[in-house]
Specification:
Strand order of the largest sheet: 1-2
Number of strands: 2
Structural class: mainly alpha
Number of domains: 1
GO cellular component, one term: bacterial-type flagellum basal body
Subcellular location: Bacterial flagellum basal body
Number of helices: 2
Largest sheet: 2 strands, antiparallel
Distance between the termini: 47 Å
Keywords: Bacterial flagellum, Cell projection, Cilium, Flagellum
Main location: other
Shape: elongated
Strand content: 5-15%
Protein name: Flagellar hook-basal body complex protein FliE
Length: about 100
């Protein structure tokens, strides 16, 4: 079974941070936004790395160093990651548009 670790997150939904007094406090919206932004940046970097691995694997296939099975698996992983990224982008745009349509 092929697993896509692009969005494999081990952190809880509501993050808690430790204050200087050793007390746990909830993260502020600003801190959460930074975490979300870095999460998206890391995910996009991983998609780019998978695409580069696909190109490298294709070059190795042409040189006769790897089997077609490995090339197809790598290319399908990159394709699925790209499709997932596209769907996440589409949902984010839809959510933004819905927020803009709401009346205040």
């Amino acid at each position: 079974m092929i697993q896509n670790a692009m969005f494999n997150v081990q952190t809880p939904v509501i993050q808690q941070i430790q204050s200087p007094n050793n007390e746990l406090t909830k993260a502020t919206p600003s801190e959460s936004l930074k975490d979300f932004g870095s999460f998206l940046k890391d995910a996009l970097n991983e998609v780019g790395q998978q695409e580069a691995a696909t190109h490298q694997m294709s070059d190795q296939f042409m040189a006769g160093k790897v089997d077609v099975d490995q090339v197809m698996i790598t290319s399908q992983q990159a394709l699925l990651s790209l499709q997932l990224t596209t769907q996440v982008r589409n949902k984010a745009i839809e959510a933004y548009q819905e927020i803009m349509r709401t009346q205040m």
